[in-house]
Amino acid sequence: MIDVTENTPRGRSGVDVRPGITPERLSGLSRDILVLKKKLNAVILAHNYQVGEIQDVADFVGDSLGLAQQAAKTSADVIVFCGVHFMAETAKILNPNKVVILPDKDAGCSLEESCPASKLAELQATNPNFWTIAYINCSAEVKALSDVIVTSGNAVKIVNAAPIEKDLLFVPDENLGAWVIEQTGRPMRLWRGDCYVHVEWTHQAISRIRREYPNAPIVAHPECTKAVRMLADEVCSTERMVSYCQRSPAREFVIATEAGMLHRLQKECPGKTFIPAPTENCRCNECRFMKMNTLEKVHDCMARLSPQIELAPDIIQRARLPIDRMLEISSRP
Ligand code: 13P
Ligand code: SF4
Questions:
Q1: Ligand 1 centre and the CA of 85: distance in Å?
Q2: 236 φ/ψ angles, rounded to the nearest 5 degrees
Q3: By CB neighbour count within 10 A (0-12 exposed, 13-18 middle, 19+ buried), where does 54 fall?
Q4: Any ligand 1 atom below 6 A from CB of 225
Q5: Which of helix, strand or coil describes residue 62?
Q6: Model confidence over 246-287: pLDDT tens digits?
Q7: How far is the CA of 155 from the centre of ligand 2 (A)?
Q8: Interior CA angle at 261 toward 255 and 263, to 5°?
Q9: Pocket of ligand 1 contains residue 150 by CB under 6 Å
Q10: Which of 85, 186, 132 lies closest to 326 in space, CA to CA?
């Protein structure tokens, strides 16, 4: 029985995308997914922002970098990518001969939307000395126009390794870009894009929660604005949040990133308490794109082998180079 509640997040189409569902139905679906996984010789990769029941059925749960690394080395025939569209595209670019499916092909990203490839090409044409560094949250076409890809987990390392004689152009997240400039001291021209979720946290709301929980370190994603980052005890990728909270002697933490992260943190750090950082007036810490995926859709995409990621061969070829460059630099000691 599907129970649709008033607070259910809505997708771009405005229809409910994460209906409530009984525990019996969830465990039935999880069992069926495991059977399909075996039959298809599939691997299920899930981002840290996926709903708990998807994380629980996945072979690997992680950040964008970890997911790309897993996709690069998998021997499975089918990759079931539970995240947003650009992440599944990255898996396809790394595995052009494998089937890559995703639960909902409309699961986009505000950062990806902010940077159309044609506009980037126009800007690149204004300076032949640009070295384009693209955050992985962008389309395959934008990746194909870029010199190197970064994630929040390796951006500092990769910018530090960028050719010194080049003018660095960082797309599409201005907040992550500004944080990387602070960390590396390398000037960069920044594309004006942002994550519509991470810019919801404000200096005032974070200051308030700090007063309420004075002993809880504040852990923020670098997609947050500077006004929030400056209040944080740790600014890092979602994967680093796990190791930071495991290592820290603190017992409670305030987490300024998408709500799905709390499920992962709770699992990896039993006995510790995670407080979602408050936004001003809304339940804005859920990414409507990430939350378009449900366990039912994971099941259905595996049963139908659809929707699949399909990309033009020349885009795959051109986008592969900057992704390979990222993976190579990331693996350096
Ligand atoms: P991570 O690579 O840190 O998981 O971040 C991905 C993302 O989409 C953040 O909003
Ligand atoms: Fe994109 Fe933000 Fe959603 Fe991450 S949380 S997928 S950056 S819209």
A1: 13
A2: -165, 170
A3: buried
A4: no
A5: strand
A6: 999 999 999 999 999 999 999 999 999 999 999 876 768 999
A7: 17
A8: 110
A9: no
A10: 132
DSSP-assigned states of every residue in 215-274: TSPEEE-TTS-HHHHTT-SEE--HHHHHHHHHH---SEEEEES-TTHHHHHHHHSTT-EE
CA atoms of 122 and 119, how far apart (whole Å)? 5
- Give, for ligand 2, the residue of 109, 135, 173 to mutate: max count of ligand atoms closer than 8 Å to Cβ: 109
Helix (H) or strand (E) holding 303: helix 295-304
Give the pairing of strands 20-21 and 2-3. Answer: antiparallel
Read off the pLDDT of residues 204-256 as tens digits, 9 standing for 90 and up: 999 999 999 999 999 999 999 999 999 999 999 999 999 999 999 999 999 99
Is 50 near ligand 1, meaning CB less than 6 Å away?
Answer: no
Examine residue 333 and say whether the peptide bond preceding it is cis (omega within 30 degrees of 0). Answer: no
What is the rounded CA–CA span in Å between residue 80 and residue 307? 10
Which of 239, 272, 243, 241 has the alpha carbon at shortest distance from 256? Answer: 241
Which of 45, 152, 154 to mutate for ligand 1's pocket (most ligand atoms within 8 Å of CB)?
152
Residue 192 tokens read as 């004006």
- Does residue 152 line the site of ligand 1, with CB under 6 A? yes
Dmax (CA) of the chain:
61
Give residue 21's pLDDT band: very low, low, confident or very high (50, 70, 90). Answer: confident
Residue 308 carries which DSSP code? Answer: B
Verify whether ligand 2 is closer than 6 Å to residue 196 (CB atom).
Answer: yes
Which tokens go with 57? 């059925």
Ligand 2 atom nearest to CA at 288:
3
Q: Which protein residue has the closest C-alpha to ligand 2 atom 3?
A: 287
pTM above 0.85, yes or no: yes
